Amino acid sequence: MNASEIRQKFLEYQTARGHQVIAPARLVLENDPTTLFTGSGMQPLLPYLLGEPHPAGQRLADSQPCLRLQDIEDVGDPRHTTVFEMLGNWSLGDYFKQEQIPAFFKFLTEIVGLDPHKIYVTCFIGNEKYGIPKDTESAEIWQRVFAEAGVQAEIAEIGSSEDGAKRGIKENEHIFFYDDHENWWSRGGGVETTPIGDPCGPDSEVFYDFGEDKQNVAKYGKSHPASDGARFMEIGNQVFMQYKRNQDGTFSELTKKNI
Q1: What's CA 162's distance to the chain center, in Å?
Q2: Could you tell me the fold of the domain covering 96-259?
Q3: What one-character DSSP code corresponds to residue 127?
């Protein structure tokens, strides 16, 4: 299956799930002085993720051309290209984790045809300082969908990417908890730097395993999903906007949650 076929299959799949396919934004964004190029599928949709109603409804899908200049020195390695398309499905206050995770897993395994035994996922480990709990809900959903596909998926707590390089992964582990440097989304990066008033939340990344022999242990340490080595490649990310940072710096649950 080539890139055009994957794009077509994805948009057809999301249309069947009730999503409205929207046109991609321009690579050079208009009326956005904060950036030169569109760097993610989320970027043009931020006004709607921040609360503005979208004219096409609450379920959207698109294929957004992206260019990331911060990655330009890495172009040519196993995971970076000059320009890429980011496929996205978006829920604006509609469905959430219980529907999103199984649907994405189904697309990867039943539509694209990936081997479920070679899929590994990450979840947010939580932040005790700010009272943000571990995302056990996502991990439990993942464990269920893996089991339905015949995969024994054990859960492991990693913490940081550096911890992962020391620990590595063990047999049957497919679900890993990482800190906010890996599994938290906000416009400011981690939990501590989330802007006041902004929506934010944990994310769950999905990786494909190309084989242990691809890992350069001397350079990157033991293999784990968030390693910069070549064994694992991120093939998807699900951002769960379920919190808002309050004026006093604390976090509270959003009534209207987005994906």
Answers
A1: 20
A2: BirA Bifunctional Protein; domain 2 (3.30.930)
A3: B
